């Protein structure tokens, strides 16, 4: 039971580590001025962002495998099985980390107003972008996200103040 609980906690913590979603803003990017560029979507295609292999999954899996394996049999058997359990746990932990951090994403090819083209890969967000649609590219801290361009309406003119008598 304890092993399952530890494995579940490991998977949950790895899944929450990172995202490329346009709907999630990193804490360090809040209240920071961003560069905004107007563009038009040329193409959108689905891609998969490969999962990370930071070593955390392998390390956690190795520890769990070693502890589980060392409890088998006598002292000598426990040591051998503990080593084998550590190796197997590391392999399984790495695979779990990689799988838990994999994301379904889109590659968006856009054309800027000056004619230049850019490709941005980001996780699928709440917006579905289509070719020909106006978008904005928001760049903060070297990372760019694409979102639908806001509709700009003509503001009513502000009346001049009445002259003082």
Question: What is the CATH topology classification name of the largest domain?
Answer: OB fold (Dihydrolipoamide Acetyltransferase, E2P)
pLDDT < 50 stretches: 4-17
Strand percent estimate: 25-35%
The CATH architecture of the largest domain can be named as Beta Barrel
How are the strands of the largest sheet arranged? Answer: 3-2-1-4-5
SSE order, as H and E? HEHHEEEE
The residue fraction in helices comes out at 25-40%
- From the structure provided, what is the oligomeric state, counting identical versus distinct chains? single chain
Question: What is the total number of structural domains?
Answer: 2
Tally of alpha and pi helices = 3
Instruction: Report the top-level CATH class of the largest domain.
Output: Mainly Beta
Mean pLDDT: 77
Cα separation of the termini: 85 Å
Signal peptide: 1-22
Protein name: Glycine zipper 2TM domain-containing protein
Subcellular location: Cell outer membrane
InterPro entries: Bact_OM_lipoprot/Surf_antigen, Gly_zipper_2TM_dom
